[in-house]
Design goal:
The protein has 115 residues and is of the alpha+beta class. The protein has a domain at 19-82. Helix content is 23%, strand content 19%. It contains three helices and four strands. It has helices spanning 41-45, 73-81, 102-114; strands at residues 25-29, 36-40, 53-58, 63-68. The strands form two sheets. Strands 1-2 form a two-stranded antiparallel sheet. It has a two-stranded antiparallel ribbon with strand order 3-4.
Length: 115
């Protein structure tokens, strides 16, 4: 079984994407067994972030890609240390504005109820 640990950051409105691309899948030529299979482009461009070796493994019905190796705390810490630092930016929310005319309608309802 292969598991991805991903960290996502919502892009601020009007900002262009930055950092490594990860939205596409490309064909990966496995150097271990000359097989080829689809893999996320991030891992093709950053194979050092895979904690193991990708190989085609024989399953009951067909060959399938699998990441082989042990995930140790040390390997995980090494990969996390390669991630960009100091990129967290808290979201600044605009004060909530009631819909146009909302306040006027409330005033009219309040005034009518008092008559």
């Amino acid at each position: 079984m292969t598991t991805d640990i991903i960290f996502l950051q919502k892009r601020a409105q009007g900002k262009e994407p930055v950092g490594a691309s990860w939205v596409n899948v490309e064909d990966y030529a496995c150097p271990e067994d000359n097989g080829e299979f689809p893999l996320n482009e991030y891992y093709i461009q950053n194979p050092q972030m895979m904690l193991g070796t990708m190989k085609l493994v024989h399953s009951r019905y067909a060959e399938q890609p699998e990441l082989l190796g042990d995930i140790t705390p040390e390997l995980l810490q090494t990969a996390v240390a390669k991630l960009p630092e100091n990129i967290y930016a808290p979201r600044i929310e605009e004060p909530h504005q009631p819909p146009c005319g909302y306040l006027q309608r409330e005033i009219q309802l309040h005034t009518s109820a008092q008559l």
